[in-house]
Predict the structure of Prepilin peptidase.
Amino acid sequence: MTWVDAPGAPTWFVLALTVAGGLVGEVLRRRLATGGYRLDDESGPLPRVSSAAIPVALALLWALVAWRFGPLSEWALTPAYLGFAFVAVALAWIDADVHRLPRGLTRPAYPMLVGQLALASLASGDWDALRRAVVSGLVLWAVYFVLALVAALLGSGFGFGDVTLAGLVGLATGYVSVSTTLVASYAAFLLAGVYGLVRLVLRRGTRKDDIAFGPWMLVGLLLALVVQVRPFG
């Protein structure tokens, strides 16, 4: 089954998940607004973002997931990406704030995502997609691990939290296609580079500033899911 010939999700399904995403996003916003994820040495004001940003972001993401995946794999694929979207929004917020991707979020996301993708493969019988997701996750994790080692030697801010997140990105994109993983990876570096360049041009940063890379990895993943129209497989 391809993106093109897959049956479209009913309008009511997209609307229902949009509303649900907004409600869940509001719960997440209240949790993040406490700053409870911060460590003792992480102080300062919380990010100055509209209080509606998180609920709106999760509502839009859940709408996108409903629209893109809908009835695929007997409706069993959608929950995998709904859960990942929730984790992604929380990680993007935290990384943008304190330049850290908490293991308390990234590590539990692995069994959650793999388990849900396995259920989708069980429902559809497409075990090749699950194998491709696992391989993509392992390869992307390994690539980022090497990059993190090089960055550590050079004194760069590229951290091992990004390595853990890379494995999740590989799983989420690899289930769709290898090209989706490649697009997501390329987009992440491109967007982060453009962001850094804009900061320099506007004189809001220097070349030595560390840039939170996690949010750009997640935005790259989102763009890859939107633009890809290749088949599963």
User: Anything to note?
Assistant: The chain has eight helices and no strands. Residues 135 and 174 are 8 Å apart (CA to CA). The mean pLDDT is 86.
